[in-house]
Amino acid sequence: MKVAVDAMGGDHAPEVVVQGALKAASEWGMDIILVGDRDLIDKKLGSNQGMTTIEVHHCGEMINMDEPPLKAVRHKKDASVVVAFDLLKKGKVDAVVSAGNSGATLAAAIFALGRVEGIERPALPGILPSENGNVILIDVGANVDCRPDHLFQFGIMADAFAKTYMAMTNPRVGLLSIGVEGGKGNEQVRVAHDLFKNSPLNFVGNVEGRDIFTGQVQVIVCDGFVGNVALKLSEGMAEATAKMLKENMMRSFAGKAGLFIGRRAFQRSTERLDYAEYGGAPILGIKGVGIVCHGGSSVKAIKNAIRMADDYAKSDFKDRISRQIVEYQQSVA
Amino acid sequence: MKVAVDAMGGDHAPEVVVQGALKAASEWGMDIILVGDRDLIDKKLGSNQGMTTIEVHHCGEMINMDEPPLKAVRHKKDASVVVAFDLLKKGKVDAVVSAGNSGATLAAAIFALGRVEGIERPALPGILPSENGNVILIDVGANVDCRPDHLFQFGIMADAFAKTYMAMTNPRVGLLSIGVEGGKGNEQVRVAHDLFKNSPLNFVGNVEGRDIFTGQVQVIVCDGFVGNVALKLSEGMAEATAKMLKENMMRSFAGKAGLFIGRRAFQRSTERLDYAEYGGAPILGIKGVGIVCHGGSSVKAIKNAIRMADDYAKSDFKDRISRQIVEYQQSVA
C-alpha cells in the first residue's frame, strides 16, 4: 500500500506534514509519496532524503486555506492536493492524506474518484471521545445547507463506517436536534426524523448536544454547518479546560503539589481529550480513500492519519460501505 | 420589586424551585410569589410557610416539558407560566422566572407583554465562561429556521444586553460560522455577514466554535438551533470532563493523593465550568422581564435566576435595550 500525502496542506506545512510522514515511515514502515514543492520538501527531509519508503512527487502549485474550493480545484491543475488525487486515480497510490483546505480536498476527491452510487453528497465524519467509547459525528463540515435526505445518506454512511472501520456491532444512530421529541428541531431535522424512523438503521431518535459525550449513541447525524461548529467547539473547550485547570492548580502551593503527585493520572485524563488520536477522517461516499486532517494538525495527527489511510485502503471497508449504502437506500425507496 | 416564580416549571419542580426561592428570600430578602398548585407548594415550603417575603398564587394547570408550546399556552389559560406572566401584565409583579418548557415560557411572555418595536423574534442569550470573561451566545433556542435579518436583530439585542447588564464597554460581536472568511458558512450566515458589516456594531466578522472559549469576542450570534446544540454540548462536555478527570485521578494512589492535596484549586476550576453561576437568561426583545432557566436547574441556579430577575427589573436596562434596538435598526434601514 502506498499513501500520497499533500505536503503543502495545513497550517504548519510542509514542516509538520513532512515530520508526520517521517514518523509513519520510520515507526510503521509506511510507503509514502510526499506531493508538493520538491525543494521545500527536501529541505525538511534533511538527512532523511535517502529513506526508501519516502518519495517526493513535485508539483508547482498549492491551494491556500482561504481559497474558494471549487474554483481553486478547477483552475490549479498542478496544486498538490489535485495532483495527489490524480496519482490515486491513475493507480500510483492507494490513498491520499491532506491537512489542507478541506473543501478543496473534498472537491479534488470527488472530481478524481467520483461518488458512490446513491450518494449525492459525500460527507466527513468526526470521531469524538465519549464516556462510553467513540462517537461518530457526521457531517463535520463538508456540506452546509443540506436537505433532509442528505442527512439520511450521512446516517447510512456513518453506520456502515461504524460497523466496518470502528468495529461497532449495531451502532445506535441519533439525529442531532434541540429536544428529544420527534417534533422538535428545525424543518430540516423534523423531515429527516421520519426518513430515519422508517429505515433499517438502529435509529434511537433525536439526541441533544450533551449526548455527544455520554456515548448513549455511536452515530450522531447533523448538517455540516452544525457539525463543524460542534467539532470546533469541542476542540476549543477541551483545550481551554485543560489549560485553565493547569493554571488554577499552579496558582497555589497545594495545587502545584497535587498536580505533581497526581501528574500521571492528570495526563491520562487530558490525553482522552486529545483529538490527535485519530489523525483525520475519511471522506465517506467517494470511490476511493481520501483522509482529511485538521488544518492545525500536529505531527502525531499526521502520522495517525497516514496509518488510517493505510488501514482503510488495505481493508474492504469502502466496498462494504458502498454495498450497505445501495442496500439501505433501496430498502426505503 | 416582586418576582413571580413558576413553581411547576423544571425537571425537579416544585421541590428545587421552592428551595431556590426560599434561598433567594432568606439570603437576599427577595419578594417572591410562587405560582402553581398551592397544596404541593405548601408541602415543600413546610415550616417556611409563614415567611412574609414568599406568597403562593394558586393555579390549577401546568405545561409539561414535551408539550407543543404555542398550543399549550393558547389552551391552558390557568397554567403556572401563563398565570405568572399574567400577574406581570397586570402589574402585580415586576418579573417572571421559569425553568419550565422554554418554548412555552417564551410564547407566554410574548402573548402577555408583546415585542419591543423593531424586533420580530425575541431571543434567548446564553452566558458562557471563557478564558477572558463571559461570552454571550445568542440565540440559544428560542428560534429555529431564522432569516439573516433575524440574526442581525439578535446581534443588536445582545450588544445592548452586554453593554447594560454585563457592563461591557464596546463588546466585540462575531457571527458563528465554519470559517473566518466572510464567504464561508451557509446561505443564512453569508447574507447576515453583510448586514452586520454595514452596521454600527463592533463587528469583527465570522468566528468559529472554538472562539466561544477564547473570549476574543464578547457576543456570538447564531440561530437558535445551532446555539442550543452548542450550549448543551458545552454543558455536557463540562460535566463529562470534570467527571472523567475525577475518576481518572481516583484510580491510582498518587492521583488520589494529588486530588486531595490540590482539592481547593481543583474545585475552583470546576466551578468556572459551573453553568449555575448565571441561573438563567432574560428573554430579549419583549416588553418586560422574563427569565428562562434550564429545565435541569439546581437550587443555586433558581436562586441566582431570581436575583437576575430582580436586578433586571430594578434597572432601566430593558428601556435602554429598546432604545438601542430602534436606533440601530434605523441606522441600517
Please tell me about this protein's structure.
- Two copies of one chain form a homodimer.
- By secondary structure, the first copy, chain A, is α/β, with parallel strands linked by helices.
- The first copy, chain A, folds into two domains: 168 residues, Isopropylmalate Dehydrogenase (3-Layer(aba) Sandwich), CATH 3.40.718.10; 154 residues, Isopropylmalate Dehydrogenase (3-Layer(aba) Sandwich).
- The first copy, chain A, has 13 helices and eleven strands.
- In chain A, the strands form two sheets. Chain A has a six-stranded mixed beta sheet with strand order 3-2-1-4-11-10, sandwiched between helices. A five-stranded mixed beta sheet of chain A has the order 5-6-9-7-8, sandwiched between helices.
- In chain A, a hairpin with a 2-residue loop joins strand 5 and strand 6.
- In chain A, helix 4 packs parallel to helix 5 and helix 9 packs across helix 10.
- Chains A and B meet through helix 8, helix 9, helix 10 and helix 11 of A and helix 8, helix 9, helix 10 and helix 11 of B.
State Rg of chain A. 20 Å
Number of helices of chain A: 13
Overall shape of chain A: it is globular
**CATH fold group of the largest domain in chain A:** Isopropylmalate Dehydrogenase
- Order the strands across the largest sheet of chain A as they lie in space: 3-2-1-4-11-10
Structural class of chain A: alpha/beta
Number of domains of chain A: 2
Q: What separation lies between the terminal Cα atoms of chain A?
A: 37 Å
Low-pLDDT windows of residues of chain A? none
Give me the CATH superfamily of the largest domain in chain A. Answer: Isopropylmalate Dehydrogenase
* Largest interface, Cβ cutoff 8 Å: A-B, 66 and 66 residues
Q: How helical, in percent, are the residues of chain A?
A: 40-55%
Order of helices and strands of chain A: EHEHEHHEHEEHEHEHEHHHEEHH
Mean pLDDT of chain A: 87
- Assess the beta-strand content of chain A as a share of residues: 15-25%
